[in-house]
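Technical annex B. To support the medicinal chemistry partners, we prepared a structural model of the target in complex with zinc ion, based solely on the information shown next.
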Amino acid sequence: MTRVRTTRSEATVRIIVLGAGAGGGLPQWNCGCVQCAAARTGVIAPMTQSTLAVSVDGRNWALLNASPDLRHQLAASPALHPTGLRDSPVKAVVLTNGDVDHIAGLLTLREKTGFTLFATEATHQILSQNTVFSVLDPTFVRRETIALDTDFCPLPGLTVAAYAVPGKIPLYLEGEAPDVTMMGEQTIGLRLWSGDREVHYVPGCAALPDWLVSLLEPADAVLFDGTIWRDDEMPRSGTGTKTGARMGHLAMGGPDGSLARLRSLRGRRIYTHVNNTNSALMPDSAARAAVTAAGWEIARDGMEIAL
Ligand code: MLT
Ligand code: MN
Ligand code: ZN
């Protein structure tokens, strides 16, 4: 995809990183790894779980995913506070998959204020099969189905298109040997644009084929899966047995990692959905030095991005 850019339009896209962490957050309740310990002692900032807020007018906001920490995240973000007795600037929620860290926060949004919930048919099915989500009263919460590669407008002035990225079904639906690089509705990336500003949000991605690199290249900003630094960091650190590949997350480092694969990006490049095991969280690590040298930022809770 190529774009000819002449003069920049006035339109802006505003993003607030409500939660930069992956599932479990930082520190994770049961984890004593280097990064979790550093977060407990104030050496590095804690992170809540994976959610962004996006707006074009500063008044109406869409949430991209809804983390289990959403109640706290909304309270911590003045732009998302109610402006009247019972209302909310949150007008829409867009889900990129059915993982716990992306859907559990929907339960926080159950108190009879209207919004539209956008998800693929596959993700909507997961929600309808879990009857606890029927607390989202359909009188107030409209469920809209996202068709892949088809534009939709979660907010006036903001257009979004979802595309399949390599990934897997949620952990709690896995069988014996799940396909971890499946292409379909279960894991999507989002292209968001307003006027000539374009941003991509891809919090979970198992591989970076050439077509995806080309799609991301011209964007003003890319917020990409920063779960892990090394594919084997969980087994190596003793925090778990799974590799990144097994979890459906491409590592940042290594010859085929996202740092190497995405070196041709033109706009801001920001890692988000960062797992607590990721050594790039430590300011003095070799991983952080490599990330910074390649022009990447690591998202943090409360970070604001204006394009
Ligand atoms: C993931 O991103 O791999 C999942 O959120 C893991 C999980 O469900 O805990
Ligand atoms: Mn996750
Ligand atoms: Zn940890």
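Notes passed to the chemistry partners:
The two ends are 20 Å apart (CA to CA).
The first strand starts at residue 14 and ends at 19.
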